[in-house]
Design brief:
It is a single chain. The protein is mainly α. Helix content is about 65%, strand content about 5%. It has helices at about 1-10, 25-45, 50-55, 65-85, 95-99; strands at about 15, 85-90. The chain has a two-stranded antiparallel ribbon.
């Protein structure tokens, strides 16, 4: 894995920095939170009674957001894994705000 990370660093896509390791648990917490949100939306998708309770239209379809939450959970988990080895992604809005 270190060889692959080094390749991305050499390409300028990842940056090695010691401070980011402190954010590992924060990234992983965000990933877990997104998985919970994804599960809630998936439950809502197939449950007419839940839609009624929430006053959502009968034809409300949260499936697109189920996918978005799943994708974002994977992104946050990957960011957490990179942070664990003191590395982060270069030039994203999130890492620009953090770095």
């Amino acid at each position: 894995m270190e060889r692959h990370i080094k390749w991305f660093i050499d390409q300028g896509l990842l940056i090695k920095t010691p401070f980011i390791g402190r954010l590992t648990q924060r990234f992983l917490g965000k990933a877990r939170n997104n998985l919970v949100t994804m599960s809630i939306l998936f439950y809502l998708y197939g449950n007419a009674e839940a839609k009624k309770t929430l006053n959502a239209p009968e034809n409300y379809d949260p499936s697109e957001w189920v996918v978005v939450c799943g994708y974002y959970a994977m992104y946050m988990a990957a960011s957490g894994a990179l942070a664990k080895v003191s590395t982060y992604e270069r030039e994203t809005p999130y890492t620009s705000a953090v770095g």
